[in-house]
Amino acid sequence: MIAMQYRFVLPADYDMAVIRERIASRGPALDHLPGLLFKAYLHGTAPENSYAPFYLWRDEQAMHDFLNSPAFAGVAKAFGWPSVRTWTPWHAAVGDDIRQARHATLSSEAIAPYSDLAELRAREEDWARRQGALAVVVGFEPVTWTITRLCLWRDPPAVAAHERHYLVGHVSAPTAR
Fold it and tell me: How confident is the model over 155-166, as a mean pLDDT?
């Protein structure tokens, strides 16, 4: 598996209804995309207007197929050439009700130098199992030595100071029931 996200920060006066309409009209196009475990169409207005889809792929080939596709070319044409972040999931749990997600929390944390990575991974997996979210992904990234945590929720969650809250406009989840 591989997790992936890109984020577009939009102008303060950007009409976010345009993003919501884009998600509503184009989101279902990926509902049956081979190799996609899920795509959460994240958008928000705090601390800035943003569109920040988050993906979980079966493998890197599925991710590359999408990045080489007309669908991704359309996103880049509409919003600009994004920096695409990727993580190797240390934990990924996707519930059967993932399509009911309406909120997301996302956080990243630096890994202290010389950390016991096995111990850290065990703690992160324990944290993930206790969340009660519709989906939880804990991603590990060893270039910048960070952990990224995504949770998808049906109802508005309590948001910690170190987390970003997003609205979820649509979830494409080809393998969910």
Answer: 96
Q: What pLDDT, on the 0 to 100 scale, is given for residue 176?
A: 73
- Full-prediction pTM beyond 0.90? yes
Look at the alpha carbons of 58, 63, 64, 65 in this order and tell me if their dihedral is positive or negative.
positive
Task: State the DSSP code for 84.
Answer: P
Query: Residue 177 above 80 pLDDT?
Result: no
DSSP state at residue 18? H
- Residue closest to 87 by CA, chosen among 148, 136, 131, 133: 148
Please, what's the b/e burial string for 66-100 (b: 16 or more CB within 10 A of its CB; e: otherwise)? beeeeeeeebeeebeebeebbbebbbbbbbeebbe
Q: 177 in a domain, yes or no?
A: no
Q: How far apart are CA 124 and CA 118, in angstroms?
A: 10
First to last CA, the chain: 19
pLDDT the model gives residue 175: 80
Sign of CA dihedral 21, 78, 14, 39: positive
DSSP code at position 155 = S
pLDDT at 12: 95
In total, how many domains does the chain have? Answer: 1
Q: Could you tell me what percent of the chain has a pLDDT over 70?
A: 99
Between the alpha carbon of residue 72 and those of residues 26, 37, 65, 75, 128, the distances in Å are: 12, 17, 10, 5, 30
CATH number where 107 lies? 3.30.70.100
